[in-house]
Amino acid sequence: MKTIKRMFIFVLCGYLVIGLIWIGKDIITHYLNINGLPILGYHGVVSDHDKKAYFNDYTYYMAKSDFEEQMAYLAKNNFYTLTMTEIEDYYNGNYKLPKNAVALTFDDGLLNFKTIVKPILKKYNLKATCFVIGHKTTIANNNNPSKHQYLRKKDLINDEYVEFYSHSYNLHHKKKYTKKIDTLNIEQINNDFSLNKNIVSDKYFAFPYGATNENIINVLKKNNVSLAFGYNQNRNMTINDDQYLLPRYLMFSEMPMFYFKWIIQ
Ligand SMILES: [Zn+2]
């Protein structure tokens, strides 16, 4: 019995140490890059009703009230939201980050970017970038509130609040252990880029699932893409980062406000 007890305590301590190292690593990385730019990577925002009714377990859709609380905090504390051009200028050393700088990005080109996110951005005078999956704009929405709905091509008009750039035409699908990007050659990836050019600009690009490889880097260069964004690195971007793998924070629906404040501090 004593041995089992000892083993249990040993395993528990092991988990505790691993947990502390994991958290410690994130905290150290955060402070090492504290002078950089936090780039927040959202997906969708749905009404509080729809969140509860249809997307309770779906971490990529935030409830409207939670999202609005974050945006109200940015506005109240005079945060400045950078455009992609300003991020590029900052990366090239031609722009000094203002105090309280942050960048807001939204992946996938969801319809709720137009119906829920943009009105909140306007209300608080904030700017954001939406990375659109080109082929989704061509498939009919089914008006079922429990399904994902996407922007139409006619919705992709840049203005003082929002800008639209590429999240690939159709490079998302992932088999269990294989990312689609890893199954395609340079020509096939380049073909995907050509298809998206008719829909949205690829001057700035967000990798599907944040995944990159040598072939797609080759295509980014070929197409003169200025900056490309990864996902889930959970640290600030700095001018020392790779132009084609800029880090973003993963924004998720259960995110506590203290964590939000900490990452943008
Ligand atoms: Zn995506």
From TrEMBL:
This is Peptidoglycan/xylan/chitin deacetylase, PgdA/CDA1 family. Residues 100-265 form the NodB homology domain. GO terms for molecular function: hydrolase activity, acting on carbon-nitrogen (but not peptide) bonds. Keywords: Membrane, Signal, Transmembrane, Transmembrane helix. The chain crosses the membrane at residues 7-24. One of its GO terms (biological process) is carbohydrate metabolic process. InterPro entries: Glyco_hydro/deAcase_b/a-brl, NODB_dom, Polysacch_Deacetylase. PANTHER family: POLY-BETA-1,6-N-ACETYL-D-GLUCOSAMINE N-DEACETYLASE (PTHR34216:SF7), PTHR34216. Pfam families: Polysacc_deac_1. The lineage of its organism: Bacteria, Bacillati, Bacillota, Erysipelotrichia, Erysipelotrichales. It comes from the Bacteria.
